[in-house]
Amino acid sequence: MSTRHRLRWGFTVPAILGMVMALAWTLIGLPGWTGTAKAAPAGKLSAAVTPPVACDKKDSPDKGWIQVFYVYRNGESRFEEMRDTVKRIAWNIDQTFEASAQRFGQGDSRRLRFVQDDNCQIEVTPIGADLPDKLSLGEARGHADNWIKEHLLKDDGGYFGRHKPVYFVDAEGVDGCGLGGGAHAGGLGGGWAGVTFGCWGEQALTHELIHAFGFNHCNGADDQGNDPICRGADQTPRCDDLLAGTVLDCAKDEFAYFHPRPAPGSPLAENPEGNIANSPYLIKNQPAPPVDAQLVGTKGRCLASGGAGKAAAQKECGDDTVWRRTISTDGYFQLELKGTKQCLSSTESGDKAHVLSACDKGDERQHWMMFDAAGPDKEHYKLANRATKEEARIADEAEFKMHFSVGSATTDAEGTEPTSDEPSEQGAEPQSDGTKPASSDAEDDADLAATGGDMGTSLSIAIGALALAVLGGAILMKTRRKRAASSHRAR
Ligand SMILES: [Zn+2]
User: Fold this and answer.
1) Mean residue pLDDT across the chain
2) Which pLDDT score is estimated for 335?
């Protein structure tokens, strides 16, 4: 395949190390990882609870759906253990799409239209297949597609025309990290995404989902190094931001594929079909509400205030250790100790202390990104701070579970009527029906890779997703590795 599919090795040292480690993980099949999701006791906060997604209980021919599947080898299912984790990761992707829309600062919302239950909870559908001992991720996808054809195909054969399946593959011997393909960014059409267990996580899946909307890696614009769809494999990234590997269309420049409200005359305004923000697979009128959660460290204690003027601490979990997470300025999260108007803040001094200070949306020390799927059970999050660009170790904990309350997980969605979801902005833009979708090339490319017809492409995509998965870590480490940082920024 063309050179754009080859990984460029002028990437940071930690990223390469991370890729090697991640590839090794994948190749050995990640033995021994087990899930620990437990049923949620009534009234308690729990890691097994995931907030609802944007509600939609009514189908219509103009709607597209994201459907989440857990794919396993017959006889080796861990579905009961893994269902909550899968749901949580899928919800994290929803939060990323919402953050990506909100960071344009124009009051717009974009959330994924998931196949869901009556409580607006993501439905995870298990797919058992007779997988051979060794197979590619593309071949695993083929088995899963066949299952859908047997079980879910509508009378009109239209499943794949309006559904993008997302496959969480949990089987040893599957070669690869992530794959995705599709077309028609702003309209209905095919598309799918898949990841193997070692790569389960919001960042890798967001990357694959962008493929599912029809985009190739950077669509050939090789100088967009650290956009989520550019894989971080370039030395001249234009988006020098902690969220560079996370939010869609990070650089907001002429390599544009996601903008809720593109300026008149801009390329996306002229080509609404090439704008993921116009997609009928997204819900546009249900902004993500804040979520309340405890941040539970590995020792079972909760992140809390350490008292006035003191560093944040770990305390016994209780009503006074609940944080309200909102999507704040530029797509970052802000964490307010609920009801106190005090927000978690990182100091920029060398001691890396974390304190609570008066909430201020514009204060970058209060802007956080949260990496999901950390730890062997994939239930932990790591926090990184926008101002310090470093991963936070807070009161001796670096990983936290988010425990949502059973009640609050549905409160915010209750009463939300599934309203008609007309893409209001879309109609205002000039329609260009004759324009060839920008994504046709990506569709061919990704589908070819997915069928195993081009293993070079398939492998490079997998490696690319690996690079993406470690990109955040690489960025975080760059402040500690000045040489790596300077080469990262070199132009
Ligand atoms: Zn890719």
Assistant:
1) 76
2) 98
Query: Do 199 and 464 form a contact (C-beta atoms < 8 A)?
Result: no
Closest by alpha carbon to 284, among 110, 29, 84? 110
Helix (H) or strand (E) holding 81: helix 79-102
CA 214 from chain centre, in angstroms, equals: 17
Task: Please give the sequence-ordered ranges of beta strands (E in DSSP) within 121-238, or none if there are none.
Answer: 124-129, 135-136, 163-169, 174-175, 178-182, 191-196
Q: What is the pLDDT of residue 333?
A: 97
Q: Is 61 left (phi over 0), alpha (psi -120 to 50) or beta?
A: alpha
Please report, for residues 333, 440, 456, the alpha-carbon distance to residue 4 in angstroms, rounded to integers and kept in the order given: 33, 16, 12
Nearest to 158 by CA among 45, 88, 63, 39: 63
pLDDT score recorded for residue 46: 81
Distance CA 384, CA 398 (A): 10
Smallest Cα–Cα separation from 324: which of 359, 364, 374?
359
pLDDT confidence of residue 225:
64
For residue 179, the cross-strand partners are 194
Quote the pLDDT of residue 173: 97
| Residue that the structure tokens 């209980």 belong to | 57
**What's the whole-model pTM score?**
0.77
- The Å distance, Cα 447 to ligand 1 centre, comes to 12
* Calpha distance 349→468 (Å, rounded): 29
CATH 2.80.10.50 is held by the domain 291-411:
yes
Q: Is residue 250 within 8 Å of 161, Cβ to Cβ?
A: no
Q: Which residues of the chain are modeled with pLDDT < 50?
A: 1-43, 408-491
Distance (Å) from CA 46 to ligand 1 centroid: 33
Ligand 1 midpoint to CA 470 (Å)? 14
Burial zone of 142 (CB within 10 Å; 0-12 exposed, 13-18 middle, 19+ buried): middle
What does the pLDDT read at residue 407? Answer: 52
Which helix (H) or strand (E) segment is 304 a member of?
Answer: strand 302-304
Q: What is the pLDDT of residue 308?
A: 81
207 CA → ligand 1 middle, Å? 6
Taking the centre of ligand 1 as the mean of its atom positions, its distance from the CA of residue 484, in whole angstroms, is: 24
Coil vs helix vs strand at 163: strand
The boundaries of every CATH 2.80.10.50 domain in the chain are 291-411
